[in-house]
Amino acid sequence: MDKRDLFRDNVLTSGHRACSGCGEAMAARMVTDLIGPDAIYINATGCLQVFSSHNQQSAWQAPWIHSVFANAAAVASGVEAALRAKGKNTPVIVQAGDGGTFDIGLQCLSGMIERGHDILFVCYDNEAYMNTGVQRSSSTPHAVRTTTSPPGRLANGKHELKKDVISIMAAHHMPYAATATIAYFPDLKAKVEKAMSIKGPRFLQVLSPCPLGWMHDSALSVTVSRLAVETGLFPLLELEHGELTGVMRLAEQKPVEEYLRPQGRFKHLFTGKEGGVELRHLQALADARIRRYGLLEADTKWDTARAMQSERNGRGGYVSTSTSGGAEHGA
Amino acid sequence: MKQLLEGSQAVAEAVRLCRPQVVAAYPITPQTHIIERLAQHVANGELAAEFINAESEFGAASIVLGAVASGARSFTATASQGLLLMTEVLYNIAGLRLPVVMICANRAVGAPINIFSDHQDSMSVRDAGWIQLYVDSNQMAVDMLIQAYRIAEVCELPVMVCMDGFLLTHTFEPVVLPSQAEVDGYLPAFQFARTLDPTQPMTIGGASEADNYQEYRIAQHHAMENSLAVIEALDAEFEQQFGRTSGGLLQGYCLDGAQIVLLGMGSLMGAVCDAVDNLRTQGEAVGALSLRCFRPFPAQALIQYLSGAQRIIVLEKAISIGGGGIVAAELRAALYQAGITTPLESVIGGLGGRDLTPEVIETIFKKRVEAETEMTNHFAPNHIITDEIDSGGKAHG
Fold first, then answer.
1. B316 has which bridge partners?
2. pLDDT value for B391
3. Which residues of B110-148 are buried (b: 16+ CB within 10 A; e: fewer)?
């Protein structure tokens, strides 16, 4: 008997150890359920690995392997090569956080793409090293407070900018690279489905708020990730072979303050003397991204208002891959 | 039939005969000729494998990890800095109990950067959980590589075949290559139960804490200890089928009546045996012992071979900086445990490619034997006698 039938419901099942409101847990469940259990998942070290794979208490109902922090894309390359050698075409999926993608895992990821492995690499981007207690990564945005980029007499949080990893992906001229968030499920679903329909290396960056590290109410994870898009700070994009082929248009541009205010990681900008400068700087960064990708005038019907409408009408279109009881598992 | 083959070519042919499905590597001197030959075999359709050009040795080790976890027999090779860059993954492969086989083309470790042979690279990862087998010759490299896959797959432990860079990898020697049918008869198709398979979903590499982590580590240690008998048995089986032995754990030379035993690892042993021949003609009761298997450490077998010796001289091409000779320290501990207090000299030499010629080895031998009357402490500190090696090297260089 196929052992999958015994307990299979979600690929990432309930009962794991993620924090309340964890954006990464939501994102991982959405992505893995869209792909389904007939795939091999390779996980980098990080929150997702830690909260889901404790000894004899695994939350994974699909074949899943974790090796070390930096090598998920290389392990996946080996898995994919082995499947190719055996004439199998089981999908191979990497899951990593921003540390395992932008920083320590970047070299293996670049190698995986350059060699053209048929793998989807999913980065759950929560913009810092949350698993070790909120240290800054190269994905942490400008001016954010983390434990290793603390505001102080001489500092306003992280000095540097968030690394533009999607452009690095595009520079590999890979078949498909896209950004998504947990807020717009129909958009995420379309991107996962598109990624799964394409051969070769594919990349998906999913903005995944972390209530602990971003210091917002754990009920606001979806709201905050929606505001990241609506302010232009996190554009939703699709790039094919290095060319921009799709954006989600902003029905209206919201000021960055609406995104920053609910998050304690930006609180020092509203209380400190120098905060105003950084607020203007962050607004300028959002404006620049909106101009760069044409987020206000893009020739597409797919905008934030339409995406939200679609999400409300269809409960986000999110159903479990199981044949029964799926609707109860809405995002 | 014997063929004249470079060590790298010979061992690459052995790899081909073992039918790996995935070969991943990153180039580093002196490993390159091995992977170049394999790449050509794949390009010519002579080896049905995926050849993956990794972006680093860290990536190469990770690729074979993933491939073996997916049920494909795999191969990689590296040396020196590359092996150290793999270190994190080496521990992980061993902890996951994946039967990966690799060749370490032994090379010195920088700084100063040095491409020539010593054992510092593999000795530095001795605690990673890999079986380590050191070979004396190109024939033994071929034979041991084939045995390595059997050992790895029977024990579910990774195996590192250590062959001296340049001294073996770039040296031409007559080698007997077995036929494909012969190798197929010895090495069955890869069977591995713990693989990534959607019909039998399995979580591999999950987290463990104080409640059971230690049990995993103990199980790994026991598996290594149990592999001692497997290594001997599979060498005996190899000898039965191919008519050649690689010695299993250890190989003795002129040990009959030997009062003084020279012990070492790798290609060094050719020169040691020559030195033993010379010293025997001079009336010295000397023999040699080649330590083939350093991990697991074959303490019992060593004690059996060495219990009759009156003096042991360990020659080694690696050093634990601040500690001294590594093989010597472990051998001393094993002898002490068995209540044997034979004087044991630790001699470190041959670092970074410096020749340990038979003449140098004779010089070391004579100086150490002359010093015998002055030794009062059997567990004396190590003697790192670079002056002897230096003068010998100059005299004969």
1. B348
2. 41
3. eeeebbbbbbbbbbbbbebbbbbbbbbbbbbbbbbbbbb
Chain mean position to CA A272: 31
- Taking 70 as the threshold, does the pLDDT of residue A52 lie above it? yes
Burial call A2-18: b when 16+ CB within 10 Å, e when fewer: eeeeeebbbbbeeebeb
> What's the CA gap between A287 and A292, in Å, rounded?
9
- The structure tokens 């027999």 sit at B73
Q: Which among A40, A78, A84 has the least Cβ separation from residue B62? A: A78
d(CA B223, CA B219): 6
Q: Phi-psi region for residue B324, left (φ > 0), alpha (ψ -120 to 50) or beta?
A: left
A40, A56, A64, A75, A88 from B200: Cα distances, Å:
11, 16, 11, 19, 15
Q: How close A112 comes to chain B (CA, Å)?
A: 8
Residue of B nearest to A58 (CA): B203
Which residue on chain B is closest to A41 by alpha carbon? B196
Please state, in angstroms and as integers, the Cα–Cα distance from residue A41 to each residue in A26, A61, A64, B29, following that order. 17, 10, 5, 35
B55, B89, B201 member nearest A107 (Cβ): B55
Q: What is the mean pLDDT of chain A?
A: 92
Query: Nearest-CA residue of chain A relative to B53?
Result: A115
* Chain B residues whose beta carbon lies within 8 Å of the beta carbon of residue A53: 203, 205-207
Nearest Cα of chain A lies from the Cα of B204 at a distance, in angstroms, of 5
Cα distances from A297 to residues A194, A290, B340, in angstroms, run: 24, 9, 86
Of A186, A321, A319, which is closest to residue A331 (Cα–Cα)? A319
CB A211 within 8 A of CB A221: yes
Ranges of chain B with pLDDT below 50: 373-397
Residue of B64, B200, B201 with shortest CB distance to A78: B64
pLDDT in tens, B85-96: 999 999 999 999
**Is A321 in the B-facing interface, judged by CB distances under 8 Å?**
no
Specify the pLDDT at position A17: 95
Q: Determine contact: A85 vs chain B, CB below 8 A.
A: yes
Chain B's closest residue to A92, CA to CA, is B196
Residue-wise pLDDT for A76-108, tens only, equals 999 999 999 999 999 999 999 999 999 999 999
Higher pLDDT, B375 or A18: A18
Give the mean model confidence (pLDDT) for residues A144-161.
96
Question: What is the model's pLDDT at position A35?
Answer: 96
- pLDDT at A314 > cutoff 90: no
Give the pLDDT mean for A6-17. 80
User: Is the Cβ pair B201, A4 closer than 8 Å?
Assistant: yes
Which chain B residue has the Cα nearest residue A111? B55
Distance between CA atoms of residues B320 and B103, nearest Å: 22
Q: Which two tokens stand for residue A77?
A: 């390359």
Q: How far is A294 from chain B (nearest CA, A)?
A: 36
Q: Which CATH number fits domain A4-329: 3.40.50.970, 3.40.50.10490, 3.40.190.10, 1.10.10.10?
A: 3.40.50.970
Q: Which residues in chain B have their CB less than 8 angstroms from residue A60's CB?
A: 201, 203
Domains and CATH numbers, chain B: 2-242 (3.40.50.970), 250-396 (3.40.50.920)
